[in-house]
Design brief:
Number of domains: 2
Strand content: 25-35%
Shape: globular
Helix content: 25-40%
Oligomer: single chain
Order of helices and strands: HEEEHHEEHHEHHEEEHEEEHHHHE
C-alpha cells in the first residue's frame, strides 16, 4: 500500500517537533525586570538585578511581593551576571527586561562601552529596554515601592515614557538609541537623567539630561528647567508648559502657556570658517493660567503671543550660548554637516568645538493658539472695568 509523501512528512514533523531538547524548563528560568549598574570601592561592577516573582497562594491571603532583588559583583558585566545563578538558583532570562539604570559614578570612572556592549551583543536582552543615568546609586531606585504598577521596574519605565510625553522635563531612550547616539560624528550624546529628592524612599523622577562625550560623562548636566528648551531645539519635545513672566510684575506673577505640540526645523549651512544655523520652532497650544494678562480683543491676544514667542526665543538663545561656551554640539549640527557636506566635515572635525563656538544662530518661534480662552478674558478674581 502506497503512502502519500505528505503523510510521511507530517509524521516526521510530529516526531521531530515534540519535546524541548537541550532547552531550559520554565522552572529553571528567573525573569529579569530591571538591572542597576554601580561601582564598588575597588572598581568592580556591582549589579542589582530585579526579578519578577509570580503571585500565588490562597484566595484572600496577603499578596506577596511580585519582585525581588539580587546583588552580584564581578570584574565585568559577564562575570557579574554569571554569578546570579549562584544567588538565585535559576538561570537569568533577559528577554523581558524593562529598564537599565547606570549610576553617575560608574559613568565617571568607567565609560559605557562595556555595559552597552554586553546588552547589545547578547541575544536575550531587548534593544527596546529603556535606559537612564541615575543620580546616586542606581541600586537605590530598585528598592522603592511602585505606586500603581506591579513592580518598581515597570513604574520607572512608565516614568521615563510619561516625562517625555507630558512634561518635557527629560527624554526617553532605549538601549539601541543610546548606542547610536554615542556613535555620532561629534561623539556627544544627550541621555536621560533620573534623580530623587533625597532618601531611598523618596520618589524617583526624570530630571533633565546627562551629557556624554566619547562614552564618558561631562558635568554638569542640564536640569529639568533648562532641558526642556534644549529638547525643543533638538526637536525631541512633545508637550509641556511654558511659564512666562508678567510685564507689570515679572518677579512675583507669571502666566502659563500649555502647548500640546512642538515642532522644530533646523537648517545648517557652511559660512566662512564655521556655519550659520537657522532654527524655526512652532508651539501649538492654549492658555493655562492667566494671572495678569487680559484679553479683551484680538490685538490683546496677538500681543500675548508675541510676548510668549520673545520669551521662548530668549530662553533658547541662552541654551545655545551655554552650549557654544562649552563647545559641546548638543544639537547634532556636526552630524547634519556630515550628511550634506561630508568632505568639509572631515576637514573640520578635529576643530569642530572651536568652529561651533563661532557659529551664528538665528532662532524664530511661532505660537499657534488652539484655545484662546476668550470666554474667560480676565484673570480669575478680577472685576470688569
Amino acid at each position: 500500500m502506497m503512502r502519500s509523501p505528505f503523510a510521511v512528512l507530517a509524521f516526521l514533523a510530529l516526531v521531530l517537533l515534540t519535546g524541548c531538547w537541550n532547552k531550559y524548563e520554565l522552572t529553571e528560568w528567573a525573569f529579569v525586570q530591571a538591572v542597576a549598574v554601580d561601582l564598588t570601592e575597588d572598581n568592580r561592577i556591582r549589579l542589582t538585578t530585579q526579578f519578577y516573582k509570580p503571585g500565588g497562594g490562597l484566595e484572600g491571603a496577603p499578596k506577596a511581593s511580585e519582585s525581588f532583588n539580587i546583588h552580584t559583583e564581578g570584574e565585568n558585566m559577564s562575570e557579574a551576571i554569571a554569578n546570579i545563578a549562584n544567588e538565585v538558583g535559576r538561570v537569568a532570562q533577559w528577554g523581558h527586561i524593562r529598564i537599565v539604570l547606570v549610576s553617575e559614578q560608574i559613568a565617571k570612572n568607567q565609560n559605557l562601552k562595556g555595559i552597552l556592549d554586553y546588552f547589545l551583543r547578547d541575544h536575550e536582552p531587548r534593544e527596546t529596554a529603556q535606559f537612564a543615568i541615575t543620580k546616586g546609586l542606581a541600586s537605590d531606585y530598585l528598592t522603592r515601592k511602585p505606586y500603581i504598577e506591579s513592580t518598581i521596574s515597570q513604574q520607572l519605565r512608565e516614568i521615563s515614557q510619561s516625562s517625555k510625553r507630558f512634561t518635557g522635563m527629560s527624554k526617553k531612550m532605549n538601549l539601541l538609541q543610546v548606542a547610536i547616539a554615542l556613535k555620532s560624528q561629534t561623539g556627544i550624546a544627550v541621555l536621560p537623567y533620573m534623580a530623587s529628592s533625597g532618601g531611598k524612599k523618596d520618589p524617583a523622577v526624570m530630571n533633565g539630561v546627562a551629557i556624554f562625550r566619547d562614552y564618558s560623562i561631562v558635568q554638569p548636566g542640564i536640569p529639568a528647567g533648562k532641558a526642556e528648551y534644549l529638547l525643543m531645539l533638538r526637536n525631541e519635545y512633545e508637550r509641556g508648559v511654558v511659564t512666562y513672566p508678567c510685564e507689570e510684575n515679572p518677579k512675583s506673577k507669571k502666566d502659563t502657556f500649555e502647548h500640546v505640540m512642538v515642532s522644530s526645523t533646523t537648517k545648517v549651512e557652511p559660512k566662512g570658517e564655521s556655519v550659520a544655523v537657522r532654527i524655526h520652532l512652532l508651539l501649538v497650544g492654549g492658555y493655562g493660567e492667566l494671572r495678569c494678562s487680559k484679553i479683551r480683543k484680538a490685538s490683546d491676544e496677538e500681543h500675548i503671543k508675541q510676548k510668549i514667542a520673545e520669551y521662548v526665543e530668549q530662553e533658547l538663545q541662552k541654551e545655545i550660548s551655554a552650549m557654544q561656551a562649552r563647545q559641546l554640539d548638543l544639537l547634532n549640527i556636526g552630524d547634519a554637516l556630515y550628511r550634506r557636506h561630508p568632505a568639509l566635515w572631515l576637514k573640520w572635525k578635529s576643530s569642530w568645538g572651536r568652529r561651533l563656538s563661532q557659529a551664528t544662530f538665528q532662532v524664530k518661534v511661532e505660537i499657534q493658539m488652539t484655545n484662546t480662552g476668550l470666554t474667560k478674558p480676565m484673570p480669575y478674581g478680577d472685576q470688569e472695568e
